[in-house]
Amino acid sequence: MLRTFNNSSKFRLLFLRPNRPVICRAYTQPSAPTLSSKFSSIHDPLDTLHTKADDDTGRLRSDVRFLGTVLGNVIKETDPNVYEKVERTRSLTKSWRDGGALHQAKDYVSLFSDEDLLKVGRSFAHFLRLANTAEAHNRIRLLNSTTLNSSGPLPDKKDSCGGVIPNLLKSDNVSKSEIVEALNSQTVQLILTAHPTEVNRKTVIAKTATVQAHLAKADTLRSGVDGSYASAEVEEGLKSAIQSLWLSDEVSRFKPTAVEEAARGTLVVSTVLWNAVPSFLRKLSATMQQELGAPLDLTSTPVTFGSWMGGDRDGNPNVTPNVTREVSISNRITAAKLLASDIESLINELSITVGSEELVEVLEDPVREPYREFLRPVKAKLDRTVAFLEAAQLSLRDSGEATNFNDLSDEDIYIDTKDLTAELHLLHRSLCSTGCSSVADGKLSDVIRNLYAFGLTLVPLDVRQESTRHTEALDCITRYLGVGSYQEWDELTRLSWLQKQLTNKRPLVRRGCWNSHGEFFNPAASEVLETFDVIAEAGSGTLGAYVISQASTASDVLAVLLLQRDAGVKSELRVVPLFETLDDLNGAVEVMDTLWSSSVYRGSINNKQEIMVGYSDSAKDAGRLAASWAQYETQEKLADLAKSHGIELTFFHGKGGTVGRGGNPATFEAILAHPPSTINGRFRVTEQGEMITQNFGHSKIAERTLDIYTAALLAEHHTPRSKPSPETRELMNKLSEISVEAYRSIVRSDPRFVPYFRAATPEVELSNLNIGSRPAKRKASGGVESLRAIPWIFAWTQTRLNLPTWLGVGEALSSVLSSDDGPALHSMYSEWSSFKTTIDLVEMVLAKSEPEIARIYEDQLVSDPKALELGKEIRRTHAMTEKAVLELTGHKTLSEDNARLLRGMSVRNPYVDCLNVLQAEVLLRLRRLEDVEGKEEEKKRLTDALMISINGVANGMKNTG
């Protein structure tokens, strides 16, 4: 327990351990406290909560200490025995980092009961979760502080529009009008995806949000008097929230359905983004007015959103046509309800009695409050829209009856945004013309901006499907028509037939005929064809693009175009090939040249094309270094080819949160590292899994994220950058060749690798973690090649080896550094930002890697001597890679110039180390019980312990999949 006497007391009594009182003087902030102290042996909560630190790092220290103290007290109160084991485990792993042996911690943990493994793991996982909460809150605190200290609406930072615009004006190569034009025309579209990387249960996220809210309240009391009722209330609120967190079940017992997954994923739109987007745009407009003399146009959309949740069926049989229908209707319901609420607010606000002649004419009869009179029918129409959509959703659920939104009348309900935007623009013009511009630019402008950003469909759904599924569907059609087997035709025959059919206005098959001709149409083909029926039924703005994964030929693209035509799609979705493996990236130019040379295809795309670049699978296929160079060159070549064909090209970047899947925590620098002339004010990118929570979980953080993206696009467009020289390209080709050969020699060619991977990581067990609706593999059988990039990265992150990011890099760098090209490589690192960004990211991942932790897994889980020998070789390769990276960067230690990273690691690593030791023991016990009958209760308890350890490591590493 922990007792605090009243604040007038000269001394305070703290119990560091049961029955061990320590008398200490009233607390004063030490100069350099460490963060890795024990859970509840730090300070009195009241003292820590109200520490008036001189800097924000000190305040973060105080928050982490305080939360750790409260958690420790909660654990000690509920189970003192667990608390002692937590402290002993932490002490042993800490001694390893101070030069001791890690096996002591391993031996100690091996004596735990299954229940102890579970509870001790929960303790460390919760601490890391709370540390992350404190960090997120500190980021909000910093953003608030920056805003207060800034002279403009947006922060004066290099990666903010508040900093980029003034910096551009200082140069001689861009005018104010050019910047205004760029900001009014550029667009970032962020695509929310439900890849299974958000490991935190919704209930847990809600409780940590409560903790964060109490920390915010504590900030407002920092200058208050200690011991006040408000202070005590905040402290009790935090204790209650953490106690509730500790006593809650953080394990997801069931995989979410695809509909539940989509609802959870888009919740951020209604709870955060609906307000954050117009707030950011208002600040951007004010910044433009201040710096450039012109506001942001009311119709401009610098940021928009889309979603894959409910539309991405690639390898996920749970996303059916009816799932896509239901999710799109649910999104419409949410949008209509949000708009109805906003209109209600406008009715309350706009009590103004003077309106323009245009407004008065529309109302026909003179009224005392024209704006309210005008808006009441709008609100009623939105309410009818909600009622209609809810009935359509109920009908779909009960009887499977689908609604064709293209057949609906817009007299009684809103189908698309054109009528509503026209109505609101009329009010805006009226207010401006009658001297009420300030009112017009307030809530009304926010609602109009949201209409352009989200529309009546909230987030347009992309549909994604694997190319072979379309091939199989067309094969069923050609066999049904008696013209042969599409699947057996070569590429030239397919292209000829597809182009001929695209000019034929008659449909190939009657809609729904596949249901009555099962001898020709298998269930998989029927599902594909019904998906195109869904596209044909969807109203304007409901769907975004049709993404073809594993695209490798021109026929893959024409096939989707034909299937849309055959389904009678009125407003065809743009067809987006996704090039993701190394071979597909290298072949992309030939594929697109074939398509853009086709008059049939050109007549269908209005000289606009979107191409998706896959970062995850290309890195899994070839390694990070080779993949990044292939992605760079492919974008360059495609941009040049598009220009020669007169095509307006937009790249869609399929990046994950981790470096191994194309992610980069430094968004601004990452965008500027793209090849010159490949963005041109149009940038589409995925926001995946846990990154949605990190980047958009709070309105302040969401606004900052939107600001960074917008500023990066503006800076990229107006920052002169030269293309790599022929010598640089030759050197990159050399690095790439060495790297991919080294990477594949292990991952593809070494027969020891798959047994090692399966034994030394929790890859097999990851399927038990109920964090997504999608299976871990595209196919039920198969090896590493069939494993999705997400669990591939996830498994290596858990063991802290992070192999996919650095494997192959060391061989390439060492070879070149020791050759005559060594000086050129050093110059390339210092002078070319794209290469430097890649190497710095690899260095960061190496800094976060712990080969000795991975060895714990090997020692306990790998029995094959050959696989064990491979593990030793991999660790030697890691050391060689670290040495080569340090030689290139000139650093003495990894990421020595990244104080924020190192500080975060110093906090988390001691606790993640404990979780890794626990996880290896849990895996050992689980695998021993794998074929043992009658041990279901033990298996369940150990599975829970495994899930919690996986969750905790993911929180500690701040990377999952």
From TrEMBL:
Its EC number is 4.1.1.31. Its cofactor is Mg(2+). It is an enzyme of class 4 (lyase). InterPro entries: PEP_COase, PEP_COase_bac/pln-type, PEP_COase_Lys_AS, PEPCASE_His_AS, Pyrv/PenolPyrv_kinase-like_dom. One of its GO terms (cellular component) is cytosol. Gene3D superfamilies: Phosphoenolpyruvate/pyruvate domain. SUPFAM superfamilies: Phosphoenolpyruvate/pyruvate domain. One of its GO terms (biological process) is tricarboxylic acid cycle. Pfam families: PEPcase. Keywords: Carbon dioxide fixation, Lyase, Magnesium. The active site is at H195, K620. GO terms for molecular function: phosphoenolpyruvate carboxylase activity. It comes from the Eukaryota. It catalyses: oxaloacetate + phosphate = phosphoenolpyruvate + hydrogencarbonate. Belongs to the PEPCase type 1 family. This is phosphoenolpyruvate carboxylase. It comes from Triparma verrucosa.
